[in-house]
Design a protein that fits this description.
Helix 1 crosses helix 4 and helix 6 packs across helix 7. This protein is mostly helical and about 200 residues long. It has one domain: Tetracycline Repressor, domain 2 (Orthogonal Bundle), CATH 1.10.357. It is built from 8 helices and no strands. The termini are far apart.
Length: about 200
Amino acid sequence: MMLRKMELDLLSRWRYLRFRRLRVRIERLYGARLYACALRDSRARGLFEDGLVADTLEGRLDCLTLHLYFYTRRFQLQRAVAVRAMMEAFVRDLDSSLRERGVGDLSVGKKVKKLLARVYGAFDAYRLAHDRQQWHAALARNMPGADCKGLWVHARKVERDLARSSLCARVGQDRRASRVEERRERRKRRQGKKR
């Protein structure tokens, strides 16, 4: 009798752990897709073409930081694991982009640490900004040379869009966009082969 109860207990723990691992994998997948959505939103043409942000590596990182802040703030309470996975995907992307730029293996960690301190410092500045003037000051401090008024309008728009959407809608929207791009590329390849 006691042995049977212990076997059932172990079986239920095993099932719990198995489903927990699956849930963590799903959350990590959501996090990677959330990062892809934030990256796509931060590279909107209007930001760079209208001169709101300088089209440099620092400008793109600052813009991505702003969007990551809004994504983190929006989904932190609902899906903390997905937000953590989103930030892990950001760190992996940062690491790989530094390596692509030719930074040596020994100094990659130091540079990533320095850039993450900058990102989290910007997160704190944005979190403490409550009204328009404070937002302008935070944006001017974290994005030197950017148009703060235009960025503030863009930030409000991003915040409204995120408030209206759910995590699943954001992730699904990204998947649909990537599928459309894949279809376009397949068509181009087919047309290239026909010629």
